[in-house]
## 1
Amino acid sequence: MEIKILEFSEGAKKAEGLAVVIDVFRAFSVACYAHDAGASAIISTAEVDNALALKSTLKNCVLIGERDEKKIPGFDLGNSPTELIQTDIKGKTVIHTTTAGTNGLVNASNADTVITGSLVNCSAIIKYIKKINPKKVSLVAMGYRAVNSTEEDLLCARIIEAGLKGDEKDFSGEIENLRFSSGKRFFLPENRDFSPPSDFFLCTMLDRFDFVLRGVRRSDGNVQLIAEN
């Protein structure tokens, strides 16, 4: 099994084989919480206009997303797991757009299989990849706004890579230390309204969920996420 770690939207475009598009803070943690909360479907899209167009054609939807980390005007929720778990979305279709993560999903068009990546379902991802046993695995760390490398996405990629190689290294210390590097923004007073400290803890709960979210490209170019074990 050949494993490559790539970054950003360009990395997503280059991804081959089975691609894991990683966005720990916060897109694909939010997607896992949305499925766990009973969403009937999760549709990822790269553009705000696409999200609004989907809402005009689909019933019983909830718009979730961010630009510059903040909730998009006219959307129901921001890209916050804290906000999501406080809202009843059971039976609703989630339409999700973010600066980095959902953009990466849409751009990973050359991969045979695409799944989302986050710390909250890392072991499920490793198990899933081992079951499929692809020749190539592309771990795409989307980074901050898909332009700057981030410790949490690269750490998630390393954890998955280690698991695939049978390395039983303990990463718990590195996960905790994210609070003092890329995760410190969650603890800034000016960010608490849209990016509260609880988001950090919800996004770093290693292996909270036992499923993966596989991306299926729709005829409209957007990507629907299907939960699998």
## 2
Amino acid sequence: MNDSSCCAEKNAGSMTDEIQEFIQMLRDMAGTVADQLGSVWIYVQLAVLVLAALVALGFSSWLRKRVDLTSRIMGLPAPLRLVLRAVFTNLGLIIFVVLAATARAVMLVYTVPARSYLISVATSLATAWLVIHLIAGLVRNRLAVRIVAIAAWTVAALSILGVLGVTTEALDAVALTIGGLRLSLLLVIKVAVLMLATLWIATTTSNFLDTRIHQLPDLTPSVQVLISKLVRLTLITLAILIVLSSAGIDVSAIAIFSGAVGVGVGFGLQKIVSNFVSGIILLADKSIKPGDVVTVGDSFGWVTSMNTRYISVVQRDGREVLIPNEDLVTQRVVNWSYSKDDIRLELKFGVDIESDPHAVRRVALAAVATVPRVLPAPAPVCHFVEFSGKSLDFLLRFWIKDPVDGTSNVRSDILLAMWDAFKREGIKIPSPIQDLRLREPVRVVNESHRADGLSKS
């Protein structure tokens, strides 16, 4: 117990010393700046930098108005277009760096180096920012570009100013020990930046491989999606492990966090894990694949994409429904194009009770044969199913081979063909008019005559 207290006191004393050293460094820098403000050369350098910035801004704006970059780089290779676009975007910064470096070189000829130190620092910082932006201009993820660019420029600026070592020591001094893991502010920043960079690389590589996998004709769509998801998951896992190892974090030291994740899965994340596992099952057993026509509950449409948590189904009205993978495993799903495209449809109808059922069957089969989407084999059939008090009921069954084009529209075409045929043959549909039979005589009174008699009396 005493050894632990002594170690903690020693670490706290070391942390205090490093923070005090960092504060003293800031004070020395502030004193140096204050001394420089008393010299006329600091204002000369500021004037040179402001003039260089104004000239660079004005010339770059004038050049952008005169030059149509899109038309000039049309037809060039894609990588070269990206480089030229990045250069044209940072044209003002390039001109500023050139002017500032020229002013620095001229002042070194006629004055001592100390009188152009501010221009030297500004030129170095602008050059670092320019290089970072030119490299970042080749990346399309704007958020990742901004974060990485700011982090890289901050490190470059601290290195140029000569305070990088002291700053890192001060950040490393602010630490918290959890079990066998020491979490410092420097470690958190390093892990965050490295994690962002490696995850971006993993995602970009995964997207590239996903495009190549979907171009392989020998693989079915479900196998393509399964391989793509496994590749993405593997790359992201490797990226996380590489970052933790490079940051010096022992993976075994974060076992407490894995236990917390297990508890979270047991209480609050079971649905997410269930959907993820269900998605892997669906991709492995190939029961549903992109392009299938499915019915899940009230949703009917085409499967456009399969993700780790849900599938996307586009309905005939254009609405896109996201169905969790768990529902596809636990509920009843109708796959209209699972093994073949041919499906049988049924259509119930009734005719007037005075109609000849033999003629009705013959006319109905002839009418359904005129619809182009109905298959001739298997041949349509019409069954006389029931006598009722109001109609003769029939069941018409037929086959189509293109359910992806819809089923309601083919039923509508058949009903219209049957209506025309029934009208031509004199077959009537059930009438909504009902007969009323009276068992006893009923006396009918004319209300208008009754009212006239009462008024006369």
## 3
Amino acid sequence: MAQARVIVFGYGELVLAALDTLTRLGVTPVAVVIPGNRVGQDVDIASAYARARGLTLLVQPPRTRAASFLAAVQALEPDLLFVWSYTMLLPPDLIALAPRGAVNLHGGLLPEYRGGHVMNWAIANGETETGATLAYLDQGIDTGPVIAERRFAIEWRDDAATVRVKLKAAGEELLTAWWPAIEAGTAPRVAQDQSRARYHRMRTAEDGRIDWSQQNVAIYNLVRALVAPWPGAFSLLGSTRLVFRRVEPIAASSSAPPGTVVRVDDADLRIAAAGGDVQVLSVEVNGHCVSCGELRRLGLAEGMRLS
């Protein structure tokens, strides 16, 4: 069988991992597609990768302006579409252009973690396990039949950065193991159990606001789900945004209302929450780490409540 003509959709380091893995498998994609609804370094590095290797580079526009894009894809005569780390839906008329279908390498376990930013949601939800899933795309959002999954643990000290490293490795392993069957059209198509399905929406910046009435472990999970380069978990000190980069839940519990600063000195910052206090190990203001002394100069004091 002749090598499949593959178009790869994605951006950032994960699509680079997909392209490198396919190259090791002897596959040269006929094009790379980046999402038109996203800008920044993650898109730029995918564009640079494609141009450096002489690959056709396309930008997927909104559906209202999709006619010329669909024509460009059709002219490339793809057999397969492959997606890893992407922010736009592939409409049915796009998927239909590839006789062997469209395959997505999803950054979570299906069907429990459908939707966007599911790696971050899993950490914030306190899951102890996640994984990567290969699945065919259909007209729904992560509802297509599953080819295979690769699970791994979310350890207590993991955060979004370390979990993404594990996710990248799991994805590369899945793609390497299953690509021959995908290319041949013989990969499994296991229907998802709809009774277990949960959809997770794309996270917004406001989802990072800390609710200090939650258990201190839940706050710890939220903070580690949003470490840099993600925007971070935050509270407000008046009009000043405090972005918490590292915290620790501690058993000691004060009687102060949730969100109250129960200690702030040169070596320690503790804030009241349910189930115990939260010890703050790293906090940023305007993108820069600040010390407890600097926070005091900004007006932070024991007895104050963060919002």
